[in-house]
Amino acid sequence: MLGLFVLLPTTIHLIGSGTKGVLNTVSISFSIASTGAVLVNAALLFYFGFLTYERFSFLIQNGISRRTGWAAKVVSLSIISLIATVYDFIISMFSLLDGDGYNAIPYLSLYGHFFRSQIPNMVMMVIVTFIFMLTVAIIGMVVGSFFSLLTRRHQKGALITAPIIVILLFTVLSRAIRSKLISFTAIENFSKFLIGYSKTMGNFNPFVPSMIMVVLIIISLIISRGLNTKLKIKRGE
Fold first, then answer.
1. pLDDT reported for residue 97
2. From CA 71, how far away is CA 117, in angstroms rounded?
3. β-pair partners for 203
4. What is the mean pLDDT of residues 171-185?
5. How many CB atoms are closer than 10 A to CB 99?
6. Arithmetic mean of pLDDT over the chain
7. Which spans in the chain are helix H?
8. Which of 119, 128, 138, 204 could pair with 220 as two cysteines, CB 3.0-4.6 Å apart?
9. By C-alpha distance, which of 193, 197, 23 is closest to 94?
10. What is the DSSP secondary-structure string of 126-170?
């Protein structure tokens, strides 16, 4: 990612324009890389959480209980989420090289005005990023546990039908909005609430999405634990 989003654009700039404005190019490149890092790491964490049956069968066949294996997975995903958060934070700090301030970092451009001091805003960015990473990983555990309970035939069917159901839901929702059965304003206000926008403050409150994600983590852990107790060694597959 650093080679693609930072090294390559910087090299092209040096070849084409020399050292003039190179600092600005590096800053912009790191800003793009920080956003890319969040997305890529989130995808990887979802995949790590999704991997369930092979790990379960290996542990259960070697005398490790379901509870211990499940708890170990939660701990390992938490550690990986923390590593991904630190990685993204380091890249984000390089985005501030040209002095563009909070606008160089997507999170701070939205939520960086909640506290009056820069340090609390930075600390909150790290906390929110970690919670987001962990949320994605734990949701991956739920999806992976659910798929592990299905046969291979049913897994293929679920992979085919899931996108179709999502498309149908969006189609029904868009038609309901056009027909004024559902108010778009209500959806907009609800979306603003989820991301913590406050009209009275004029900025975004990072505690709102953080609390929502924490609730999602707790619910997902309960569901994942319940599904984990139902896992069995499959025969003949």
1. 67
2. 38
3. 198
4. 81
5. 9
6. 86
7. 2, 8-17, 22-50, 53-61, 66-94, 106-111, 118-148, 152-178, 184-195, 207-228
8. 138
9. 23
10. HHHHHHHHHHHHHHHHHHHHHHHTS-HHHHHHHHHHHHHHHHHHH
Identity of the amino acid at 89: F
Q: Which three-class secondary structure state does DSSP give residue 4?
A: helix
Using pLDDT thresholds of 50, 70 and 90, give the confidence band for residue 127.
very high
Q: Residue 203: helix, strand or coil by DSSP?
A: strand
User: From CA 87, how far away is CA 195, in angstroms rounded?
Assistant: 24
Tokens, residue 55: 């790990």
What sign has the CA pseudo-torsion 103, 106, 110, 113? negative
220 — pLDDT class (breaks 50, 70, 90): very high
The DSSP bridge partners found for residue 198 are: 203
Please give the average per-residue pLDDT across 205-217, as a whole number: 95
In this structure, which amino acid lies at residue 182?
I
- Could you give the CA distance from residue 80 to residue 119 in angstroms, rounded to a whole number? 24
First to last CA, the chain: 38
Domain segments of the chain as ranges = 2-11+22-148+183-228
